[in-house]
Structure formats: C-alpha cells, structure tokens
Design brief:
The complex is a heterotetramer of chains A (about 325), B (about 250), C (about 400) and D (about 425).
Chain A: H1 2-33, H2 40-58, H3 60-87, H4 91-113, E1 129-133, E2 136-139, H5 140-162, H6 164-174, H7 176-181, H8 186-212, H9 220-233, H10 238-257, H11 262-269, H12 280-283, H13 287-290, H14 294-305
Antiparallel strand pairs in A: 1-2
Helix pairs in contact in A: 1-5, 1-6, 1-8, 1-9, 1-10, 2-3, 2-4, 2-8, 3-4, 3-8, 5-6, 9-10, 9-14
Chain C: H1 2-23, H2 27-49, H3 61-79, H4 90-109, H5 114-134, H6 136-139, E1 145-146, H7 163-185, H8 188-198, H9 200-204, H10 210-236, E2 238-239, H11 246-259, H12 266-280, H13 288-302, H14 306-313, H15 315-320, H16 324-352, E3 358-360, E4 363-365, H17 370-401, H18 405-408
Antiparallel strand pairs in C: 1-2, 3-4
Chain D: H1 5-21, E1 31-37, H2 44-61, E2 74-80, H3 85-97, E3 102-105, H4 109-125, E4 132-135, E5 152-154, H5 159-172, E6 178-184, H6 187-203, E7 208-215, H7 224-233, E8 237-240, H8 244-256, E9 263-265, H9 273-277, E10 285-290, H10 299-311, H11 320-336, H12 341-348, E11 352-354, E12 360-364, E13 369-371, E14 374-380, E15 394-401, H13 403-406
Parallel strand pairs in D: 1-2, 1-3, 3-4, 4-5, 6-7, 6-8, 8-9, 9-10
Antiparallel strand pairs in D: 10-14, 11-12, 12-13, 14-15
The chains are: A mainly alpha (about 325), B alpha/beta (about 250), C mainly alpha (about 400), D alpha/beta (about 425).
C-alpha cells in the first residue's frame, strides 16, 4: 500500500506541476484579457512538435530552448493580428476565435507532421532511474520534469512579486481597467503576457512530449482540464491555479491508484445486486474508471458552492 | 406618513464602514434630495435601499414591509424604482423595447411566454406614452446603445419611471450634462415625478434647490442634517462640511 | 402590409423546404437535407441561449443527445409494442425529455451568466458525456442504441421506409419549431431574455429575477434541442454518445456563431453552410478540416456578425437602390480573390498529395515539376496583386453606396 | 474593408466543389468499391494507411493487368467516416446514392456494428439494391455471432479467436504466474478482458489475474499511475487491447518504469508506433495477428511488399488481409460474372482461397468468418527483412497456429434472404 501511495503522490506531482505550467499562462491570459483561450493546450502540442523537429537536428536541449521561444513568438503574433482584432467583437467572438484556432492548429500539425505518433525521445543523459523504491523505478526524466516545473513556478512567483512589470501584471489581473488609466501600454502588456503564457505552454509540451507521447490528439483532453484548473483555482489567482493543479493531479492519481468503488461501498452497506439489475453499470463502477472525469465533477461543485473559485477574489 | 423608513442602517466593506447608522424618514409625496461630498456614501445608500447591497445592520421599511433582506426585483415589485448614476440601459435593444420591458411587471405579464407583444395594445400605447414624456418618441426604434449621452440619461429616467412606481430614486440624473441639458432634465424630473415620492442624489445645487422639498446631508456615512432647502442653505455645519467646499472649488 | 410581408416570408420558408426534394432527389441530397433540418432546429435552440439570452454554453449537446436517446428508446418501445403511437410524435418525446434535463440542470446552472455559466455547462457536458460511456445499459456504450422507425402505425399509408418520408416529417417539425422559437422572441419572457443578456443588473430593478428569466430561456432551449434530438433519432434510427459530447456542443456553437448570433435567421444560415461543408467538402480533400479551420478563423476575424450579418450589411444599399453600383467592384475584387484562394489550395494540395499527379478543378498538376509550382505561384501572386489594386475601388463604391459608412466600412 | 474578401472565398469553395463533381465520372464503367474509414481527424493515420494499401492492391493485381470481368477497372472510392457512427450513417447514404454496393470498413467495432445494422435495414427495405459489408479489421465477436448477417463478411480473426491462440501461447510460458489486464473502457477492451480471464482460468488456472483495469478511451494523458499499479501488483505479463495513442503511451510508461515484462497486444505496431517504441520495446511488445511480417514465406509476397514500399516509401503493408479480401471478392466476381452483392456473397460463402503466402484460407459459410493461420510476433531488430516505420525494428513471428486449429464454434443463426 505504502509504495502505491508514494508513487501515486509522485505521479500526481508530475501531472499537477505539468498542468500548472499550462494553467499559469492561462490564468494570466484569462484574468487580464478575459479571453477563454481554448487554444492554450494547442500551443502545448506545438511545443512538443517543434521540440521534436529541433531535436532531430540539434538534440533535445536545443529543442528545450528554442521550441518555447518559437511557440511564444507564434502566440504573440496570434494575439497581435488575431485576438486584438476580434477583441472588438466581444468575448464570445474571442472564444470562437480560439476555438477555431485550436481546431486549425490540430489540423496544421497533421498537415506538417503527419497523423501518426512521433518518436520524440528524452535525452540519453536522463535515461536512467533516479531512484528505485520497492522495486519500482522513478526515472530521472520525471525528476527533471518536476525540477523544471518547480523552477518555473519559483521564477514566475519572483517576477510577479518583485519586479515592476510583475506588479503591473498583478494589478492588471485584479483590476484590469485601472492599469490602462495609469498610462501603461496595455496592448503591449497583453501581447507580452499572451506570448509568455503560450511559451510556458510550449515549454510544458517540450518536456511532456517524450513521456506522454507526441501525437496530434495530445492536446484534446488537456484543453478543457486546464480551464477547469483556472476556474477552480479562482480567477486572478496564480496561487489558486497552483493549488488547483496539484489538487487535480493528485486527485486523479490517487483515484487511479485506489481500487475502491461501488462494489466495496455496497459491501460495506451490506447490499448486493444481481448482474441483471438495471443499474448494474452503477453498482460496478469504481474510482479508477471515473478518474479522468473527477476534475469536471469538482468544477461543477466548486462553481455551485463557491463561484469565485478556491482563491478567487473577483467574480467574472 | 412615511413611505420609506431607514432605521440605523449600516454598511461595512470589510473593515471599512461606509454607512455608519443612517436613520431617515421619507414622507409620501415629498421630493427628497441627498447631498454630500464625494465618497460620503450616497450611492451606497441608494444601493442599500434598492437591494443591490445587503445592509450590515439596521432595517429599511418600505410601505410597511421590511425590505432589507429582499432581492432588488422583489423591492422593485413593491413599487420602488431607481435610476443609476452611470447609464444602465439595455444597450442592444431599441429605445421602445427598453421602456416596454420596464412596463412588463407592473402590467402583470410576469414571465409570460404566451402573450404576443405585438397584440398588447394597451402595453404598447403606454410605452409610447412614456417615450413621449421623456421626449424620445422619434427615437423609438433607435438602438439605445447608440443614443447621444443626454438621450441615454433620459432613457435611464424613463426606465425608472415607466412602471409607475410610487417611490422613485434618481442617482445623479444630471451627471455629466451641460447647463442647458440640465435645465431640460429638471423640467423632465418635475414632469415625471408629479404626484410621486422622489429621492434624488445630485451634485448640481441648482437642480437640488429647484426640485427638493427636503434635503438630507450625508457626510462620511452619517446624515448630519435633514431639513428644508432654506434651512440647509443656512446651516453652518453643512456649509462647513459641504457647501463651503463647493463654493470655493466652483 | 408588414404582416402580409412577414407571412409571405414564412410561407416562402415552408415552400422552399417542401419543394427541395423535388429538385434534388438523390439519396445523398435527401440525407443532407435531413441533416440540415436537424441542425437548423438545434442551432436555433442554441441561439435562444447565446444570441438571445447571453448564456454561453459548452454543453448544449446534452439536451440534444438526451432527447435523442429517449426518442430511440421510445422507438424500441414502439417496436416491442409497449406503447402505440405514430412515430410522427417522436420529436415531441425528445423535446419533453430535453426539457426535463434542462429543468434539472438549469435549476443550478442559471444562477449566473458569463464565465460561471459557461464553465458549469462545460463541466456538466463532460460529466454526462463520460457517464454515457459508463452507463451502457441506457446509452449503449460507444456503439449506441438503435431502433426501427417502421414498426409504428403507418401515417396515412406512409410507413417511413425511405429517408425522404422522414424529411417531410422533419419539415413539419422544423417549421413548427422555427415558428414557436420566433414567437418566443415576441413574448415578455423572450424580450426579458434580451434585457437580461444586455444588463442583468438593471433587469432586476424593473422587477425581474435574472435567474428566472435565464431559467425559462434555458428550458425552452432544452425543449427545442430535444426536438432536434428526436429528429436525429428518426432520421438515423440510432444514436450514440457522440450526440451529447463536447464536439457536438462545439459544432452547434460554431453554427450559430458563423451564421450570425444577432439575427434570428443567423443560425439557420450557419446550419445550412456548415452541413453543406461537412458533407461535401470532406469528399474532395482529406485536408478539408484544415480549410474549414481557416474559414472559421477568417469568418470570426472579418465577419464578426456572421453570414447573416454580412447579408444584412447590404440592407442600406438595397433600400437605397445603390446595390447595383457594388456589382462590378465586387466582381473585380472577387475574381482575383477567388484565384488567390484557389492557388493557395492548389499549393497546399500539391505539397500534400502522395500521387504523382494532382487533378485540381480540371487542371493536371505534377508536384514533381518545378514549373507547375511556379505557374500556380505566379497565378496566386498576380491575383493577390490584383486584389490589392482593386480593393480601394471596392471601398469607394461601398462608401458611396451606403449612407452610413461606419456600418460596413471598417 | 477586408470583410468583402470572405464571401468570395466561400463562393470559391462552392465553385471548387461543383467543379470537382465532374472528376469522379469515368467512361469505362469501372467496378467501384467503397472504402469507408477515418481519413481525417484523430484516427486518420490508420484509415489512410488502409486506403493506400487497398488502392495499391487493386492497381497491382488487376488494374495494371487489364482489369477484371473482361477489362473493367477497379476504382476504390474513399469515404471518410471519421470513425464516427453518425458520420458512418451519412457516408453510407452517400455510398447508396453513388451506387457503391461493396463497402470495405475496418476501424472500430462500434462503427462496424452500426454499419452492419444500417446495411441490414437498408437491404431489407430496398430489395435489389443490397449493399455488402467487407469487414477487414473490426474484431468484436458479436459480428459473426449474435449479430451475424448474410451481408457481412469478416476477413480478420475475431477477438475470441485471437485470444484463444494468445492464451495457448501464454499457457506454455511457464514463467508467467500472474497477469495484468488493462484496456480501454469500451466493448472491445471489455471483451478482451472477459475472454482472457475465462480462457486463462481454463488453460492455466495457476495464473493469477492480479489486475483488471479499464481506463476511459483517449482521455488518459499519463499512464504512469496505472503502471504503478501494474508494478506493485507484481505481474509477470500484461494483456491489452489498446490501440493508437493509448497503446503507445501505455507501452512507453511501462517501459519507462523499468518493468521488464512481456506486453501482449493486438495493435502495437506500424503507423509510427514501432518507431516510437523502438529499441525500448524490443522483445517486450508481442502482437497477435494473421500473416507474418518476418519471415515472409513466399517470394510472391516479398515482391508485393517491395513493390508497395517502392511506391510508398514511408508506408508499410500493415494489413495483408485487405489484399486477401480484395482478391477473394474479385474471385467471387469472376466466378459469378457478376458484381451484384447477393451473387458475390453466395460465392464467398465457404470459399477456399490461396493467399500470397501460399496458405489456404477459408471463409466459413455459417457465420462469414475467415479462418487462417495466426501468429504471435515480437518487436525486434533481429532477423527483420521488412521493418516497420523504416525504423530498423519490425515484427518477428515466434509462434504459429495453423488455420484449422483456430476454428472455434459459432452461435450464429444466419437469416438468409431469398431471391
């Protein structure tokens, strides 16, 4: 039991921190610009693909550096020539735009890289077990993923709390209208934030690609989960996003690790049902099977009982 | 007889007390103005009465029922209507629709999805009548969001008075208007509040003294005086707290 | 006079729908018409939420699918003679259950509009879509459940063996649903939905609970989405979890948006365009989704009010009688623009195709030949140049044809 | 002002559409066969690969040699169903509309079931315009058991047959004492689990099933938490019916965790999977399939593969059963001198046919199920003449079961239409 618990925690951390890299950028974008960026996870996918292509010629480490940059520039371009224009037509228009963008990026990836899985590998240097516990290996690459994610979190936290630009951004998150009145170049800040946000998503893709498989569907399941995190964490709260990311990462990991479900519950209650019972599907349900939908359950519950999210300070 | 009674109403935002115990009686049929320096809590008081904010303590009685815990729409249904300081209309609908919507509840349509509006002769005539009152008849089919500012203010008033509420609360009806526009709006206020009770927040002293029967002065969340315009004008503490400032800055 | 004109539009709408199969009678075209009919009701119901009520939903497919599932279950009950009535009423069954689902979910989701509503709809959509795969007994897993529409009592001798017979059933329901959805906009509840969309705060101060107004629109939208689901069940005689998942929800959002949210006919236009694209385009290029994605983005960028909005943009010129002035400039810019687009598509296809030759609108292109690339490239660049040259003229013509330049100029 | 560009763009699309209507018509009246599988979207890789193979087979065997039925060409008409049951319905109507009477379809048993029902319904309602379903890959047993149909022929071994062979093989591996079963939470995944458990209980009661896990299809981002459970269960081997990205991710996670146990699979090769797993998957990934990839028994088949590789350097012959299916259908057409589905169906029943590998395969008339030898192969780079994904790695067959030993009973009670 203990080993499962330890590894479930580690796995949850890896997933959670990875989700945070996506969610951090999205929180900034969402809170400042009010844009529900559906394409955020697509930039994550682009990160993985660019890194794959770069790594073919220059190795993994160059990919790690350049792919996020390319994605960030792409993101900034999208903001400058797409979103900014659509912004005039309102939030729904922005949303449909990012919706379409997500769709387009997926198709474009298939066009340029083909529909099959890509052989994007972790660097050999990290191809060893970091430690072995109860006969189970924890790969160095996963440790590296945790390291990168944590250092991003710390850097981001420092920039946001210590630097001038960080303070402006923080102000813009909580009071978007005031900042413009103070004479800051809001469009430039938006472009910058969008660029950095997408670059972070790209970076997440770069480090996730080798372990989570690089293929055109890699962004599909992720897109809505990241939203869930941002909303659960609370608009305008980076710390909330961090907590929500870890919460969801761990929640899913523990749910999968657990072996309990309705049969156990019924046992406890002393109930028993025939296989032919009309609700047999319900009585045989167990936690691992519903693990991937738990975030959505959490989302609905949080929104009903606490519409501002866990640490959110403002509504809408 | 008082139509509206505020009894020791308080409102805090976190640690900050914005309204610190306001008690006030508004008599039926009177035209009451609330004045006070910026930040005194005039709009907050309006929001408390109309139900947008919940009071922290105290009670508000309107027509003998306690309303401090009621939602805005419930208060509105009792016959209390208000306008807003910042224009607050239904931007994407035309002027006529704006007014007609304001009439639905008082005309008993409730949430009906079985009355076709085109056939409701009385309702439509009433809406046109309100438009006439506020002088927007020729703009009836114009998108309200594209009206000129003064016209939007008129529409703002129109939505407030359309339902025929007994108590009308106007929050700076002349805010941001030129001198001549303000004149027109005074006439308009006179016209549309005839025979009704009016509470008004206004900075323009000309309008205040022109319209009000009684004036309350709100300073830092407290009413320091309630009296007739003449007495307020000569009240020393009011002069000190408020009018003096205005006089020097103007 | 106005009423007569309005009535003639409705009659025209009905007549067009009724005669369509006379002109296009192949199984394929009837199949496309049926898809359109379903999509029209579905998209219109979505517009009740977003366009008229200001509620952005990512889970509208739930009501469509739920209505559809119950409709198929009813078909099965008819087959096993548990119940006995004409399948003509199946869409109504779908509608009732769509309504019930909406009453349940709406009771807690319409509290707020905006992001909160959008996210609850997303969450509920995902939850229900996922449950549909878990509760195999009711939803039939990924293969879905199927019924047979021919076991019900014949309707005046019609046994509904052929799709075209279902098409006329669909026309009946589409017409009824459209009329009722239009009439809804003309009622106090419909108007208050607009008011709450524009300004929920103010709506509360004229006596209306914004939540209840939203709830009513939400339920009505659920009802009509369920009717669309029932039509789906009748047409395909089966249903799967696809119909209630996020893809379907996304598609209806796109239909309504592309068509034009601000106009009652917008979703109809959107439904027709998207259905056509979906069923025709896919057969001519496996890159059709790429083109579709580009089209979406361009529409959002340049036609913020959708296709209906674009058509309505010409109202002024039409009324003023100046629309003729626009014909030539449109042609002068349009033809080169078309060429630009075609050459872009040709280049994309050439780089994608694995065969040695590419048949492209009557031309034979060989990706291996540099000359072919050059030729297409030159045509493309030349046309692009022509577009740029002719644009100012179009702009001028537009300005002179319209009294209010700000309406369409920018 | 750029607004005006867009409608023209749309017009352009429409004109393109109308213009391209003209292309498909041809004067020589070819025999037209529909190929309905995902050609766009998330599953396009496998569908497109199948389409290329079928088209190549038609050209290689017939069109380049003067056609069939005295000079008629075979035209393969692609229909993109996006692996969606609903889209399948739409594409089926298209097929009927264009008088395509033979439909090849393989991917997803859900789609195959839908198509089966649709075709049955259509054939019942439209006598004389019947359509034939050629199932080359959907392995849900139900299609030749309970739901068997006169109009459906399966050219792949179904899941129970494959698992029968697989469990025979596992039964011989003495070292395997415990088994972990993991699969996608849908009918095929569940079928694999149920059948494996019951067969293993019969053949090797001592093997303990230490895990029986389902995960939502296409939703899992990281399989490591599942693998953690596999590791801690102490399983000696894993059986999975996963396909596509779920297969790759699962295998990668297992390998990354340092677990050195065999993974028994159905779909863990080709279309990028072999390349992605590469050396890590060596001797771990086992596949149960028909027609060996290495060694290839006959020169005839080697030539065919080489020709295919020459024409499609980046693709592989992943589904030889497509070739068998096409060849058998053509043989049926030639025998009956007819392209009518009813005649073809009758001729296919109990047809015995010798494949490129010189093996005689049999289409059982009772349930329309093909029987041919089954093989268990392992991913390796040793002894590989024909690799996968140009990766140097490929499948090498370790275990063979001849056709007659793969035969299992059927519960099919087929209703045969009479003409």
């Amino acid at each position: 039991m203990l080993e499962i618990f330890i590894f479930a925690t580690l796995n949850g951390l890896v997933t959670g921190l990875l989700l945070f890299m996506l969610a951090s950028g999205l929180t900034l974008i969402f809170s400042m610009m009010g844009v529900l960026n559906f394409a955020h996870a697509s930039f994550y996918m682009l990160g993985a693909y660019f890194a794959y292509s770069v790594s073919l010629y220059f190795g993994f480490w160059m990919g790690l550096i350049f792919a996020p940059l390319i994605v960030g520039v792409l993101g900034a371009v999208v903001e400058r020539y797409g979103l900014r224009r659509v912004h005039q037509s309102g939030h729904v228009a922005e949303l449909v735009f990012t919706f379409g963008l997500a769709f387009l990026i997926e198709e474009a990836v298939q066009f340029f890289w083909g529909p099959d899985t890509k052989n994007y590998q972790a660097p050999d240097i990290l191809d060893f077990p970091l430690f072995t516990l109860f006969g189970q290996e924890f790969s160095a690459y996963r440790g590296f993923m945790i390291g990168i994610s944590l250092s991003i979190f710390i850097t981001l936290y420092h920039i946001l709390t210590r630097s001038r630009i960080g303070i402006i951004i923080q102000a813009a998150i909580t009071h978007p209208n005031t900042v413009a009145n103070l004479g800051h170049n809001v469009p430039l800040i938006f472009m910058g934030v969008f660029g950095v946000g997408t670059a972070l998503a790209g970076l997440a893709g770069v480090i996730a690609g080798p372990v989570l498989t690089t293929f055109p569907g890699m962004s599909i399941a992720l897109g809505s989960i990241v939203f869930v995190i941002v909303v659960i964490g609370g608009l305008g709260s980076l710390a909330g996003a961090f907590i929500a990311s870890l919460l969801i990462g761990l929640l899913q990991s523990y749910a999968i690790a657990s072996d309990v479900g309705m049969p156990e519950l019924l046992n406890l209650l002393g109930l028993e049902f025939e296989r032919s019972h009309p609700l047999n599907d319900l009585w045989t349900l167990n936690l691992p099977r519903i693990a991937p939908i738990l975030p959505f359950l959490l989302l609905v519950l949080v929104l009903i009982f606490r519409p501002t999210g866990l640490l959110g300070k403002r509504e809408e | 007889m008082a139509i509206l009674t505020l009894n020791n109403v308080q409102k805090n935002f976190g640690e900050t007390a914005i309204i610190r115990g306001v008690s006030l009686d508004i008599e039926e049929g009177e035209k009451h103005a609330i004045i006070g320096p910026n930040g005194a809590g005039k709009s907050t008081l309006f929001h408390l009465i109309s139900g947008l904010y919940k009071v922290s303590a105290g009670s508000i009685t309107f027509k003998e029922s306690e309303i401090q815990d009621k939602a805005p729409y419930e208060i509105s249904r009792l016959g209390l209507a208000r306008s807003f300081q910042v224009t607050n209309i239904f931007q994407r609908m035309n002027v006529f629709e704006n007014i007609r919507c304001a009439l639905f509840w008082s005309k008993g349509y409730r949430y009906s999805f079985w009355h076709l509006l085109g056939r409701q002769k009385e309702l439509n005539e009433q809406a046109m009548h309100v438009l006439e009152q506020i002088g927007l008849t020729d703009k009836a089919l114009f998108p309200s969001g594209e009206l000129a500012y003064a016209q939007q203010r008129a529409l703002e008033l129109g939505i407030a008075i359309a339902s025929g509420a007994e108590l009308i609360m106007l929050d700076e009806p002349a805010a941001g208007m030129s001198h001549s526009e303000a004149e027109t709006s005074v006439q308009l206020i006179h016209k549309i509040t005839e025979g009704k009770t009016l509470i008004m927040v206004e900075h323009d002293m000309n309008i205040v003294f022109n319209v009000a029967d009684r004036i309350s002065v709100l300073v830092y969340g407290e009413v320091i005086a309630t009296d007739s315009p003449e007495n307020i004008r000569s009240n020393a503490s009011v002069q000190e707290a408020y009018l003096g400032e205005v006089a020097t800055s103007a | 006079m106005v009423q007569l004109k309005r009535l003639s539009i409705w009659i025209g709408y009905l007549v067009v729908m009724l005669v369509l199969p006379q002109f296009f009678d192949s199984i394929l075209s009837v199949s496309i018409f049926n898809q359109m009919a379903i999509a029209i009701v579905f998209a219109l119901s979505y517009n009740m939420l977003l366009g008229q009520g200001g509620m952005l939903s990512f889970g509208h497919a739930v009501y469509f699918g739920f209505g559809g599932f119950l409709a198929v279950h009813t078909l099965i009950m008819i087959e096993f003679e548990t119940v006995y009535f004409s399948i003509l009423f199946i869409p109504l069954i779908g509608g009732v259950f769509g309504l019930l689902a909406a009453i349940f979910i709406g009771s807690f989701s319409t509290h707020k509009a905006g992001t909160v509503f959008a996210m609850i709809s997303l969450g509920m959509g995902e939850l229900i879509a996922a449950s549909s795969l878990i509760f195999v007994g009711f939803f039939g897993g990924e293969a879905g459940i199927s019924g047979d529409r021919t076991y019900g009592p014949p309707f005046f001798g019609v046994e509904f063996l052929r799709d075209v017979e279902i098409y006329y059933v669909a026309v009946f329901w589409v017409f009824i649903a459209t009329v009722f959805m239009y009439l809804f906009t003309q009622t106090p509840a419909g108007r208050m939905a607009n008011a709450v969309r524009d300004n929920p705060e103010r709506a509360e101060f004229i006596g209306y609970s914004a939540r209840k107004v939203r709830f009513i629109s939400f339920c009505a939208a659920g009802l009509f989405a369920g009717i669309a689901g029932g039509l789906f069940a009748l047409n395909y005689e089966f249903i799967t979890e696809e119909t209630l998942n996020a893809t379907t929800s996304g598609r209806v959002l796109l239909m309504a948006y592309i068509g034009g949210l601000g106009y009652f006919i917008g979703p109809i236009v959107g439904a027709v365009i998207l259905t056509l694209m979906n069923s025709l385009l896919s057969n001519y290029s496996d890159l059709w989704m790429l083109y579709l994605g580009v089209m979406f983005l361009l529409t959002v960028l340049f036609l913020p009010r959708g296709f209906a909005g674009f058509i309505m943009m010409h109202q002024v010129a039409w009324v003023r009688g100046t629309i003729k002035q626009l014909a030539l400039p449109y042609l002068l810019t349009g033809v080169p623009a078309l060429l630009v687009m075609l050459s872009a598509i040709a280049l994309i296809e050439m780089s994608h195709v694995e065969a040695d030759v590419l048949q492209f609108i009557g031309f034979t292109l060989e990706p291996a030949l540099l000359t072919d690339w050059l030729m297409v490239g030159i045509v493309g660049t030349g046309s692009l140049f022509a577009v740029r040259k002719s644009l100012p003229r179009l702009r001028d013509a537009w300005d002179s044809a319209n009294t209010i330049p700000s309406e369409g100029g920018s | 002002m750029k607004k005006t560009k867009i409608p023209i763009f749309i017009n352009g699309l429409l004109i393109t559409l109308i213009a391209s209507f003209g292309i498909n018509t041809s004067a020589q009246e070819p025999v037209r066969i529909a190929f309905m599988d995902p050609l766009s979207g998330a599953f396009a890789a496998i569908g497109t690969s199948g389409l290329k193979q079928l088209q190549f087979a038609a050209d290689y065997f017939y069109n380049s040699k003067g056609g069939i039925l005295d000079g008629r060409m075979i035209e393969i008409v692609p229909l993109d169903n996006k692996q969606s049951p609903t889209e399948t319905q739409i594409q089926f109507r298209r097929a009927v509309s264009e008088e395509l009477r033979i439909i090849f379809q393989g991917n997803s048993s859900a789609v195959a079931n839908t198509l089966n029902q649709t075709i049955n319904r259509h054939n019942r309602r439209n006598p004389g315009q019947e359509v034939l379903q050629i199932n080359y890959s959907a392995v849900d047993p139900i299609l030749t058991e309970e739901n068997c149909s006169f109009w459906h022929f399966r050219f792949d071994a179904h899941a129970a047959m494959k698992l029968n062979v697989l469990t025979d093989y596992i039964a011989m591996e003495e070292s395997i004492k415990s088994m972990y079963i993991i699969g996608q939470d849908y009918s095929f995944g569940q079928a694999v689990s149920d059948i494996s458990i019951s067969l293993l209980a019969k053949k090797r009661p001592d093997i303990e099933i230490v895990g029986n896990e389902f995960h939502p299809i296409g939703q899992v981002k990281d399989f490591t938490p599942y693998v953690t459970k596999i590791v801690s269960s102490g399983a000696d081997a894993v059986i999975t019916g996963n396909f596509g990205a779920d297969m790759v991710s699962l295998a990668k996670s297992i390998i990354d965790s340092g677990l050195d146990i065999p993974i028994y699979t159905f779909y863990a090769a080709y279309d990028g999977i072999t390349a992605t797993l590469g050396a890590d998957g060596k001797n771990k990934i086992h596949l149960i399939h028909n027609e060996t990839s290495n060694p290839i028994p006959t020169e005839r088949r080697k030539d065919y593969i080489r020709a295919y590789k020459a024409a499609n350097p980046n693709r592989d012959v992943t589904q030889p059963r497509l070739v068998n299916a096409l060849q058998m259908i053509v043989q049926a057409m030639e025998q009956t001198q007819s392209t009518d589905p009813y005649d073809i169906a009758l001729a296919l029943e109990d047809m015995r046919f010798t494949t490129l590998s010189d093996e005689e395969i049999w289409m059982r008339g009772d349930d329309h199920q093909i029987f041919q030898s089954l093989h268990i192969s392992v991913q390796t780079d040793e002894g590989i003449e024909f690799d996968a994904d140009n990766s140097g790695f490929g499948l090498f067959s370790k275990f063979h079961v001849p056709a007659e030993e793969t035969i299992i009973e059927t519960s099919c009670q087929m209703r045969r239409p009479r003409r």
